[in-house]
Amino acid sequence: MSSKADILKKIKQNQPAFVTELPNLNLLGSEQFDILETYKTVLKNIGGDPVEVTNYSDILEYIKTNYAIEKRIITTITELSGIATLDWTNDDPHSLQDVELNIIKAHFGVAENSALWVTDELLGQRISPFIAQYLAIIVHKKDIVATMHQAYERIGNEEYGFATFIAGPSKTADIEQSLVLGAHGARGLIVFLLD
Amino acid sequence: MSSEKIIEHSEAAARFNKDVERVNWHDETLWFVREKRDRSAHQIADWELLRETASQIKNNVLSNIHDYLIEFEANAQKNGIKVHWAADAKEHNEIVHSIMAKHDVKQMVKSKSMLTEECHLNDYLAEKGIEVIDSDLGEYIVQLRKEPPSHIVLPAIHLKKEDVSETFHEHLGTEKGNIDPQYLTESARLTLRDTFLTRKVALTGVNFAIAETGEIVVCTNEGNADMGAHLADVHIACMGFEKLIPQRKHLGVFLRLLARSATGQPITTFSSHFKKPRDGKEIHIVIVDNGRSTQLGREDFRNSLKCIRCGACMNTCPVYRRSGGHSYHNAVAGPIGAILAPNLDMSKNADLPFASTLCGSCTNVCPVKIDIHDQLYKWRQVLVKEGHTPTSKTIAMNTMAKVLANPTIFNIAGKSGRFVMKNIPGLVNNKMNKWYDQREMPDVPEESFREWYKKNSRESKAKNNE
């Protein structure tokens, strides 16, 4: 007998005789709070920087002022082609190792934990939000939901190959519980909150 | 590993406790994490409802796991993922190796997977000439030191920055004596970046596997699982079958609980959903039993399979905090480890359910409501019945039972006990007496309660006044 058949047979024998019903999730996620303010506070608490902007020229201005634009900056957003390249999405992912800043869009954000939902189609390449030294993500203020329950309602049966929630810059506290930003992924995360 | 002599928990804990300052530091550090968990949990008004919901979802999973596994496999295969099944640790290791061999690859970068610790994958692959580098910073540190992780979420929590500094000086050539965590982390980042960029095979654990969609979710703060997986040609993800959850929307419940329970963060930095491989690349999922189906059949203990590996029970446990993860001689330490380990090997792990005060704090913080301290208590009974506890303890318990059951013997025993403690204290206050190890024996009362009561009860007083 193959291991699969063997394991499944043993599980069938040993699992409880009656199936326990799944709980109702509709009772969850009814917390009331100021979504945008909560989003910003939580993001700051976990090491990210919220920046409110009204349009793409604000974003361009902010990046020009705050980042070394002579270094390699990539994006998937055509409006930002003036400061960042768009033609890297079919390259060998390893070739992105020298990227200083990556600017992408998120589908939506989650106020309770400041996480941003991104999928393949927004990433250009799966490695892009991880390999860049710094990361900037743009999200519309109207696209911030309260909790993870609303988040998964919104995701629904969405099709993707890869997707991730990103909450703050990569971090570690593995050395004596001292928080260090920039473990293996981005050292900093700017979230542009667009009107 | 069976030839290895295991040092029992109490002995290992005694050794750990020799350095008082360090034990106090360890204790406080973990309590600090527990407090962060509390602050985070208390911000969620529905926290208890969340725990209850998570518990019910996991109960449903355990009662229907056969069908969920079939559903998961079919959906994962539809997504282009290759699914493997391993009955035990050996088969798991062989499957991983066979994938490496097929691609003729000799190096692997790995992110955190307690399952591969449980299966001793690194040792197995090393014997086959395959180099494995653990990329989670904590795991990387303990790997360089040739130690196992001492905590499932915080693998190097037993080490001080001075220890890490010395290890990095030796292996990475960092400045001697530089103990700045920022500097040390940066050094590891640079070294491991090179590792990520050059490995063709990446192995990760799995936090959740969704039956409905055939996708897996991997949570990290460092981004190491993603750095490995998205740069490699082959991504191998290893999971115990209990990682399944029914539907994608259930992630909303578990992702709210996991990081808050673990470290007090509102969510891990990355919660990555892997559904399909990149074009021309491969994802393999290895579904492992290794004793889990047996545990599923033990009615008193099956709930341990609900565990989502947050580590909250360890951070709160007064015994774990003062004995350290290594004293549990098992991949998963602490209270949850102590109820999982006897299932894997009763005789080797018979000491672990006794490494608890049964205070119940573990049960109170568990995000999926596992009755951990009840199970510790029940394991003790199973282990005694099956003859896995030391003979001295069995004799002592039997004698105690006889004494307590018979008033005459109890009376004589009490009298002689008081006589001995008063006149020949050396007979009691010595190393043979386990109670004397950590404490002074009490002063001997002049009389027993029974003798006192005889004199002072209403009836005897009335008699005396007649």
TrEMBL record, chain A:
UniProt cross-references to Gene3D superfamilies, sorted A to Z: NagB/RpiA/CoA transferase-like
Database matches in SUPFAM superfamilies: NagB/RpiA/CoA transferase-like (SSF100950)
LUD domain sequence ranges: 96-194
Pfam families referenced in this protein's UniProt entry, alphabetically: LUD_dom
Name recorded for this polypeptide: LUD domain-containing protein
Species annotation: Flavobacterium psychroterrae
UniProtKB/TrEMBL annotation, chain B:
Keyword Secreted assigned: no
Residue ranges of every copy of the 4Fe-4S ferredoxin-type domain listed in the record: 297-327
Keyword Manganese in record: no
Entries under Pfam families matching the protein: Fer4_8 (PF13183), LUD_dom (PF02589), LutB_C (PF11870)
InterPro entries linked: 4Fe4S_Fe-S-bd (IPR017896), 4Fe4S_Fe_S_CS (IPR017900), FTHF_cligase-like_sf (IPR024185), Helical_ferredxn (IPR009051), LUD_dom (IPR003741), LutB/LldF (IPR004452), LutB_C (IPR024569), NagB/RpiA_transferase-like (IPR037171)
Keywords per UniProt: 4Fe-4S, Electron transport, Iron, Iron-sulfur, Metal-binding, Repeat, Transport
Entries under Gene3D superfamilies matching the protein: Alpha-helical ferredoxin (1.10.1060.10), NagB/RpiA/CoA transferase-like (3.40.50.10420)
Protein name (database record): Lactate utilization protein
Biological source species: Flavobacterium psychroterrae
Origin organism lineage: Bacteria, Pseudomonadati, Bacteroidota, Flavobacteriia, Flavobacteriales
